[in-house]
Amino acid sequence: MWEKLKALSQHPAAKACKKYFGDPVQLYAVFLIMTTMYYYHKEWAWLYTLIALPISYILMRFYDFVASKRFIGPVCYLLYMIAGLYVTFMITNLGEKSYPITFFVWFLTPQGVVEFSMLYTIAIYMLMIGFITSAVYYFAQVRYRMVMQFVIMLIPLSLYAKEGLHMPALLVILLLSSYFLLMVYCRQLKENKETRLLDGFHSGMSIALYVAAFSVIAAIIPKPQFQADREFIDNAMAYSTWSDVLMNAISMFTESTDNTGVVSNNARTLYYARSNEALRLRTQTFTYYLDNDSWNTIEEYDKPLLKYEEPLTYQPRALTQAILDAAAADPAFARKYNLSDLAGTTLPEQKLSELYIYYVWYNAAALPSPTRTQNVVNGTVYSIRRSASNALFTDLRGSGAVFRYYSDTYANNTAEAEVLSRLKHDSYAALLDEAGRILQTAHPEEAAILAQAGAEFQAAEQMQYTAMQHDYASPVVSRLAAEITQGLESDLEKAKAIERYFQDAGYVYDLSYAKEAGQNIDDFLNTSHTGVCYEYATAMTLMCRSIGLPARLAQGFSMNQPYEARFRSAGQDINTNFVIKMRDAHAFPEVYVAGYGWISFEPTVPAEEEEKTTAENLNVTRWGYVFLALTLLAIGIWAMLPYLREKQFRRKLPAMEPSAAAAAAFLRMRGALRLTDSVTVCELQQQSEPFFRDDKAFAELDALLYDPARSAAMTSAQLAGIYILWQTQRKAFEKAEKQRRKAQKKSEKA
């Protein structure tokens, strides 16, 4: 069998395959390219691989030429690199004419959320072929560094890791096998007394069998099942880390927001949290909407102007119970507001919930808090301010905060929802006023809650009026909201109907959808029916306002990722069950519901995949070319510096004093041969004998150095001529020696 296989290996076709496609260095580069292109365009990954085989062979031979030529090789490589980058640049320019985002943004954005671009993909293919083949060749043939080869292998792996994708098992096996094969190939084993090398065929077969066994075992052995903590990997591979952090931090202080600032693909962990429920957490509110599809703040409602005061809100259950108690105390009041059958009802208890937030990555200037936060309890958070909307801000950030809040879910309690369904927005202010007068004497504590609710309702109405003066007037929004809420009377019923509409009407959550310039909420509701949380929150906010319900857009985070974490902070053991990352940035509406107060809603339809996108930074591309030009300039200067210094030295040498010229020439000659400072002229002469023999010249050099007054036979100009001749013959000798060693090595291989 071995003889048959050996004979088969001598077949011309087998020899051709080995010659053109059997180089382990080339194969490793091809598998890296294949793995990368499978991520970008898996349908045609096989075609990219076939094309990469001949291209990589040609490039490897080109790199052989570059490595063998001391001067012309690097020049050719530099020209090749410039030409490749220029062609790639032209392709990306063509792509940007028909694609909504730049190539750099497309490259950083996960491919699962952007549309396919053939021109961009070709540009990536060219860049990967040039970079991967160069890097693999250099660290295999020029500098043997397998650690660097492993780092190169992490490049395609990181593409999959940053999106949480699984690389196909076959690609993993091929990649690891080719890496192992490259390690064996680059070991450069030599035969000695303890080691006997097999001939090429047998050693090749041994390596092939070993690699095959490694691949099979790695594929079939069952893997242990465990839940890994991916925080370090996610954070290390997150793109646009600093830009996302910066954009989120800045957005808390800006006057406006749009759909570029509420979604992020960043895996960076911001907070750990402990809570008994998933929550929508607000960091900022925005009051009015403009026709350019942006939200702006109104200073007296959204900006952090007021000092923190406790409590921030009242218990919604206590408000509703007070209304029922007023109905029980005054039958006429009960009949007037259709509460007679509910008078005297005792509502279920509404517990005060707690949310623990612990900062992980950076201390935000805004505290992510639930909508109906009652108070903040933590000794490490100081100087808390709040806006009229009760968004919380802090001047000095600590390790975390504890929020006590009333959950929005209580509004869905059967008994509570029944009461809320009887209350009408238009008569709510009068209801609160009458109920307060009824309870003023017998239940002053309930009357106080009614007064607090009345003040909050009046502030909400004033905000609604102010916002409507600035809002973009949209007949599309008004008409659709009226249709959805036709026949409904209570605030809660209307808000829930609008919240359900997007799910029932088949709206789509799609991060890859790019709105055209000039599009706003009308286009979302009329034509596209596609968007992200920003569009859904904007639509519901404006629709509620159009039917008279006070509403505002809240920006913050969606805390819905369960994650068990345990750590120590300030000497205490802390356990958490939720994690909040940059990509959990979220926008949602808050609506004022008569009988309850402000409630957050979730109109955004579920996405098929986890929210992932990348913040755009158009300046990065521009600065990238600047840095590239500066780098190439620095490399060119560094490469030309020895030549320029030598030219300058030769020009100055004839003008020096003979003794000074002798000292300068001696130092440069000694340095060219890498001799120590203790070397004398005689020793320099001995080292120069293989390529330069001139006893008289060295004697004169010695005299000028150690007894300049004894001899004036050699002028500085003559010394300069001898120096130039010495350098010329040295370089010729070193070149001849290099060629001789290369020929000897080649003959030994033959």
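Above is the first protein from milestone M3; the second protein from the same milestone is given next.
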Amino acid sequence: MYKIVHLITNENDKEIINKITDYIKEKHNLQTKTSSTKIQIDEKNESTLYLLYIDDKNVKDFLKKSINTSLNIGVLPHEECPNTISNYAICSDIFEAIDDALNLELLTKIDLLKCNDNIALSRISIGDMHGMNRLDYNKNSRFQKFKIFYKNLKELTFRNYTLTTSKEHSIQTVASGITVLEHSNKINKESAINDELSLHDGKLNAYILAPSSLFSYLWYLIAIFFYQKISLVSLPKSLGYIKTTKLTISSDDILDYKIDNCESYQSLTIELEVLKDCINIHLGRVLQDIVNTDTNNIEEKDLIKVNLLPKGELKNILINNKLPLFKKASDDDFKDLLTTLKDNAKFSSTYLILMILSTLLATTGLFANSAPVIIGAMILAPLMAPIISLSMGVIRTDKFLLFKSIKTLSIGIFMALLFSATYTLFIPLEQITSEMQGRLHPNLLDLLVAIFSGIAGAYATSKEEVAKSLAGVAIAVALVPPLSVTGIGLGLGNIDVIYGSFLLFITNLVGITLSAALTFIFLGFAPVTKAKKGVFYTSIIMAIVAIPLFLSFMKVVDRNKYFDELNSTKTLILDNQKVDLNIKTIENRKDMILVNIEVTSIKPLSINDYKIIQSKLQEKTDKKLALKVTPILLLN
């Protein structure tokens, strides 16, 4: 128990001082001695409570003098010490705060953060963290929030930083700003940090804002301004994080920084250090669980999450305040991917053998009308790899990738047509199966399949951990079966088969190339300025290909419309008997609609009955109908 309370204050209001001293005497039966901040303190007097009723600056000065002493300290809610109140969860009611200050269960040792020989209660802010410290932000209207959001988006700037941790781990990067916290608590509403950072771990927590693309920066702003909280569990990619005992921050020019959002300083180097458990202080009652924390079990290792911070060429781009639309891939990622794509672009005997075998397998499956066999040919086909290489060559104007991939693709296409056409000549079958028929009328839906497959193919190629998904992409886009159908058309001399199937292959080729190219741009493997020429020409080709696809798609729409109109008539009464109508398929020709229909009745129908059915259906549409009837008799 304390024997005396030493009230440290510069307050001239005698009334409030008397209230404090009277309450301590009446409630806790202790005498109070009042002194100014200039008092000479007894560093070994553990029976005295030093009760601070002063502003933030004087609190920090007193704490600095008390480092590694046996002094016990309490804090009262002075109107000019908001940082101290927030930091240590001091009760706003002065009498409750006195009770907490005399409650030995709330006495604990805490860490202090030193910044170039100054004490920081809550944070050090360097540069612009764009909303990380939301001081007074929640008081703004929705319009003002959007205004601040736009202002931050417009005024992002970068500078070089070198950060050196206590383990002499040095990080060189560029950033917009850095925020350093010693701790946070659950009542601090000014911070965007959703994690409770410990008062006992002997570590500081540095957050480095360094967005590498406009998209990642937008996501960070949304997390800060609208979700209003971030967490280490789901840290935005624009933020790096360092947890360490000491941190040195330097730059190539003088650094402007603020301590606790009020005191401004300048320095070439900022030395940060956490002094572990160096102060005895009474915390507010809401932090009772922190007081009871076992400080011996605190993790001692540094934690460094800086892999996504800008480096290499991207640093120079950001220093010039040119934030790219998409993130630029790292040099290592690009080097590995480029090596893979160059290998995929080269022609090889393995590629040739797989191309021939997949073509023969697909052609056999098409004649056999077997979907499983055709799927096997899709997986076996090696065409996807050189197409993905071609897309990278398009956006980077890489002559090696362009020429090698075009050469490899051309040989593969030629071999597929040659072997499928030759194989067709030796097979005594000329029927166009449903599997062949399904590849003769491509439309915009097939183009969408190609586009999505190209996105998936580029992403799977660039991410080693999902490369196994390429087999699924190959099945989705089906490159070899349309070529095999074209070869069958050549073998049969059928122009319609050749045109429809080869249009489907070209659709797949162009769709995959363009969408894969755009995906590589989005993943940061090529700058937009360099890629726009290749993307423009590929887009022109796609637009040309899309014309017949659009016309074909409109035919599908018309066919579905006619099908719905005709299928609305399910039954008719003919000669006092019920006749059921079931339209199976329709074929929308230029001058007429051919309807494949099942007619179910109890008695056989006459030609006149079928004409009545035709007449009834004709009323549903504006085109001439021709019926292909399949009569079905019900026998009792």
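Note on the second protein: The chain is about 45% helix and 20% strand.
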